[in-house]
Design a protein that fits this description.
It is a single chain. Helix 8 packs across helix 15. The chain has a six-stranded mixed sheet. It has a four-stranded parallel sheet with strand order 2-1-3-4, sandwiched between helices. It has 16 helices and ten strands. Strand 1, helix 5 and strand 2 form a beta-alpha-beta unit. The chain has three domains: about 35 residues, no CATH class; about 100 residues, Malic enzyme, N-terminal domain (Rossmann fold), CATH 3.40.50; about 240 residues, NAD(P)-binding Rossmann-like Domain (Rossmann fold, 3-Layer(aba) Sandwich), CATH 3.40.50. It is an alpha/beta fold.
């Protein structure tokens, strides 16, 4: 089924897909005086007296800004802020539907990292959290890192939401095939924002024991001189034995393939060269690195994509609503690595007993976000990364 025509019609008919619903109703002069002037002045005076009261008296405690510069949108690339807006609005819709968070799409007419950082710092007093979205690598790393101390959770979802769901899927997939993640040889094709975060999260989870082979469009990354600072950082952390060649060499004898790259780059013969009970996560959108039919003909036991119209969907929609819900509920000042691990473990557990055809819950299953939120909030409190009480 093609969703292009129906999506265009729905967006045009609705003039977008989100709007503002008022919590308060203006039905009388008393209502007007309470919610606007003169009554609202008392609220402003209270917050001016003690700024932390903003969390009690305004929408800030339950709001997230979804911010993009339009430089790396879905599989569409650098299409600019105007074209990115409907995607950010879609993200805001998912925040509300899955986690009851009021989210606001904000697109910026600059792709200068320093300007984006400055702008977000200016916007921060309005929101309880910042979801960075569809910002290209390597700028996304700098932007996220520079915003970690602004006092509210900031997360680049393309990186960490994806990494959380991939890790959760791998925890269950390896359980199904009777392997331990730390003993696996893992090929990660694509070392952009998502690929980098996935690589680092798997490496941390396995305590550096898993053999990880990261590749970019020029082949195996580690061992080359033509790589940037961020790729060098990855190579300094991961254990990798093969340092030369391409995808064919990397997949030979591998247990797991994770694609965050381009359509149709993984061939049936490459899957056939992997170890028995191979796991293939072909996550390129909208066209995966290999089709399910070809992967299974090559001998894969478990196959997953990022698409919502296929089985075994590995998509960050399973993670980001719950992660932010938990961070907001805990009054967290940041989202830590341990909070992300808690989210991944909770998501894996929420699946129940995994099978080859069901390694993760479906995004529309009820209660998934709340289970993740509870784990994330508990971890935030355990680490103490929460706002002090406002007295």
């Amino acid at each position: 089924m093609s969703y292009d025509k129906i999506s265009l019609k729905k967006h045009r008919d609705l003039c977008g897909k989100i709007g503002i619903t008022c919590k308060a109703k203006i039905k009388s002069a008393d209502d007007l005086a309470t919610y606007y002037t003169p009554g609202v002045a008392a609220v402003s005076r209270e917050i001016a007296r003690k700024k932390c009261k903003v969390w009690d008296y305004t929408m800030r405690a339950n709001s997230v800004a979804v911010i993009s510069d339009g430089s790396a949108v879905l599989g569409l690339g650098n299409i600019g802020p105007e074209a990115a807006q409907p995607v950010m609005a879609g993200k805001a819709l998912l925040f509300k539907e899955f986690a009851n968070i009021d989210a606001y799409p904000i697109v910026l007419n600059t792709q200068d990292a320093k300007e984006i950082i400055k702008t977000i710092k200016y916007l921060a007093p309005t929101f309880g959290g910042i979801n960075l979205e569809d910002i290209s690598a390597p700028r996304c790393f700098e932007i996220e890192n520079e915003l970690q101390e602004i006092g509210i959770p900031v997360m680049h979802d393309d990186q960490h939401g994806t990494a959380v769901v991939v890790l959760a899927g791998l925890i269950n997939a390896t359980k199904v095939v009777g392997k331990k993640l730390q003993n696996c040889k893992i090929v990660i094709n694509g070392l952009g924002a998502a690929g980098t975060a996935v690589t680092l999260m798997i490496n941390d989870y396995s305590a550096g024991h898993a053999e990880i082979l990261p590749l970019d469009s020029n082949g195996l990354v580690c061992g080359r001189d033509d790589i940037n600072h961020h790729k060098k950082t990855v190579c300094n952390l991961v254990k990798t034995k093969i340092q030369h060649g391409g995808l064919k060499e990397a997949t030979t004898g591998a247990d797991i393939f994770i694609g965050l790259s381009a359509p149709n780059v993984l061939k049936r013969e490459m899957v056939a060269s992997m170890k028995k009970n191979a796991i293939v996560f072909a996550l390129a959108n909208p066209t995966p690195e290999i089709s399910a039919e070809e992967a299974f003909k090559g001998g894969a036991t478990i196959y997953a994509t990022g698409r919502s119209d296929y089985g075994n969907q590995v998509n960050n929609v399973l993670a980001f609503p719950g992660i932010f819900r938990g961070a907001l509920d805990a009054k967290a000042t940041k989202i830590t690595s341990k909070m992300k691990f808690a989210a991944a473990i909770a998501l894996a557990s929420a699946t129940g007993k995994p099978t080859a055809k069901r390694i993760l819950p479906k995004p529309l299953e009820k209660g998934i976000a709340l289970k993740i939120a509870s784990a994330v909030a508990t971890q935030a409190k355990k680490e103490g990364v929460i706002r002090p009480k406002c007295i």
